[in-house]
# Entry
Amino acid sequence: MRRQLLCSGCSLIGMAFLFQLAACSKNNPSHPDAGAMDSGQPDSQTDGSCKASAPDDKYVLIDDMEMGTNGPIELDGGLSSPLTLGYWYNSGASYTADGGAGSDDKSNPAQGSFAFTTLSPQTTTLNCKTSSHAARQMCDLSGLYDTCGVGFEFAQKPDPDAGAPSAADAGQPKVTVPFDISHYKSVTFWGMTTTPDPMTGSLHVKIQFPDTDTDPRGQVCNGGSADNSSCYNSYAAYFEFTTSWQQFTVLLDPGNDGVPPTGGIAIDQSWGFRGAQWLPTQVYGINWQAQRNTPPDAGAPLMADIWIDDVYFTE
# Structure
C-alpha cells in the first residue's frame, strides 16, 4: 500500500437513502436525525498554508476522484478476484407539482446519476497534493427528513442470481458485498459547502458507515422481512461544513455502552434499529448526507450543497 504524509489542509473558498448506480440498485428512505454527535474540529488549517505531518502518520488512499465519471474507487492495494472495486452514487429529493414524491427532481446531479465535478480553482489536500475534481451533490429539500447525499461502496462481486449477461449488457451484473475495514483507525477527507446556514455559518453533514446490521441487505435491521423502516440507522458522526475546504477525521471507534470517544461513531438512539453492533468487518461503504429536520410549512426549502474530496483511511 502507498503511504503518504498529511498536508494539514489548505483552504479555498468554493459548492429516501440513496440511489446506487449500475450494479446495486437499492432505495433508502429518509429518517430523523437525532441531533449533533459532533466529531470535533476540522484537522486542517484555514489560512491557505500546507504542512506535512509527523512521519508516523500513515494514510491509505480510498479515492481522489480523479479517475472516471463515478468510479470505480481507487482503493490502495486493490481487491482480489472475484471482488472488484465499487462505485460512487448520489441521492436527492424529488417532488411532483403538489409537493409529493414524484419525478420533479430537485437535485443536481439528478437522482441515480453521478459524475465528479471539476474544481475551479484547484485545491490542495494530503501532503499538498493538487486536486482538480471532487464529489458534489446539491439538493433543494422541502419535505420533513428529506436527505441529500453522496457516497460509494467498497466491493462488488458477480451477481449469482443475474444469469449470463446478454450481448447488450455493458458487463456482468454485480452485487455489493460487505468489506473489512477493521484494520484501519479512522477515515479522513476534505469537505465544504456553498450553502451554509445563515445563522450558524455551516451545513450540518453526517458521515455514516452502513454495515450488515444497519443496511437491509444484511437482513438484520428488518428481521429478514420487506419492512425496511428500521434500517439505515448506521454508525455515524457529524461535521459542520463551511465555505472553506477543511480536512475532517472520524475515528472508527464506537466506544463502550453506546458512548463514543471524542471523534468516534455511534448509532442514533431516537429511531430505527437500536440494537446494531458496530461490525467493521462487514461494511458496505461510506456516505455523506445533509437532512431537513423541519416540516414543509416551517419555512423555505433547505438548500444543501455537499462537496467531498480526497478520502483516506488512516492506520
